[in-house]
Amino acid sequence: MKNKKKPAITQPKNQLVITKNSSDKQTKQQIEFNKLTSRIERLKADIQLASKRLDSVLNVYHNEFKPLAVKRADKELEFAALIDKKSQLYKLTNSQTEQVRTIILHLCNNAFVDKIPSEEQEELFDKWSQVSYKEEVKNIEDATKNEFAEMLNDMFDMDINPNEIGNTEEDIAKFTAQFEAKLKEKYQSETSSNNKRETKLEARKKAEEQLLSKNLRNLYLTLVKLLHPDNEIDEQIKIEKQEKLKQVTVAYENKDLASLLIMETEWIHAETDHLNQLSDEKLKLYNSVLKQQIDTLKSDLQMISMHPRYSEIPDIFKHSKPAEQIQIIKMQQTIISEVSTNIIILSVLGQKTELTRYISKTAKLINDIRDDFGLMAEFFEMLTRK
Questions:
Q1: Other Cβ atoms closer than 10 A to 287
Q2: Inter-residue contact 289 to 297 (CB < 8 Å)
Q3: Are 331 and 65 in contact, with CB atoms under 8 Å apart?
């Protein structure tokens, strides 16, 4: 039996390739240029693919998961309120009261993940918790800020004060600007030195940056002149140039050399061997900025799942495959069904012995599976059966 060949993975086509002449051997800078531009194309394709996948996950989350999660939270809070009401009908022992506390706080904590409590629901939580709901929220926010500050400290070796991180979008934007300023200041202080050798290196680096900036600007101005819509009579081509001009401006602002070179090749040197004519000196300069662009793209790819657009998606859902997402959604449906059944069961319990037995059984099950969301459906199913 012949082994079936695995389908080949389609790689993005590199539009910036320095071709090898039959008589000439490619230089080191030409080879590196081809490798770097190819890497950039792959990274851009990976980012586009990752964004597309996360957009799909976000769509499923909003349309299928979130409505069920809110419905599940409502049922859990209804169940918690009923247990609270039933517990007031009889005088319970200290042990039984603690069991009621365990059940109610467990249900509330689960529900509050997907639903902001009403004033009445917040009062129910405060009644049974040693820490109020508002204090609990503040504690979680402070812990999150501390973790975030520690992460930044580890990554950039900088002393970040968690108290500087606000809660509103305006506060976060302000903190981001301050952090970037600190990072820039740190970088400048590390690179500055009185050492003559370092001063020479800095001067050379500055000269290279100025030369690169000049090359980028010249490239940008050349494209702007060529693509200026006022120079075009044909309306269709005029619209096309207007759109392309926007892309040129964005690429220039982002110092995206690869994109500028692609557009230059498309519009100016479409029928010439332009890239082959670039000198090694210019290629070396271009290669340095291409390496920086690769580092930026790699960072963007790693951080894409942390983009604010996807922040509301739970990690268990964000990083799961479509088949796993279906199972998570089914789990929500099962929990809703089982909680509804238990509300009915609890409603008809009339004797104290029946109620205390039910409370004891429920508290034991919660302690057995505490903090494991994956077992929540099983918890309510076992509660129904026993």
A1: 20
A2: no
A3: no
Q: Do residues 319 and 305 touch, judged by C-beta distance below 8 A?
A: yes
The tens-digit pLDDT sequence of the chain (386 residues) is: 444 444 444 455 556 677 766 567 888 888 888 898 889 889 989 999 999 999 999 999 999 999 999 999 999 999 999 999 999 999 999 999 999 999 999 999 999 989 999 999 999 999 999 999 999 888 887 887 777 777 667 666 667 776 766 666 566 666 666 666 666 666 555 555 444 444 555 555 555 555 556 566 766 676 676 667 776 677 787 787 788 888 878 877 777 777 777 766 565 444 335 667 777 877 777 787 778 778 878 888 888 887 778 888 888 888 888 999 999 899 899 999 999 999 999 999 989 999 999 999 988 888 776 545 444 444 444 444 44
Alpha-carbon gap, residue 34 to 12, rounded angstroms: 14
Are 311 and 357 spatial neighbours (Cβ–Cβ below 8 Å)?
no
Angle (CA) 121 124 129, round 5°:
125
C-alpha span between 208 and 201 (Å, rounded): 10
**Token representation of residue 315:** 């990690």
Question: Cα angle vertex 212, ends 208, 216, to 5°?
Answer: 175
Mapped onto helix, strand or coil, the DSSP state of residue 221 is helix
Closest to 84 measured CA to CA, from 57, 108, 58, 110: 108
Residue-by-residue DSSP string for 258-275: HHHHHHHHHHTSTTS-TG
- Amino acid code (one letter) for 244: K
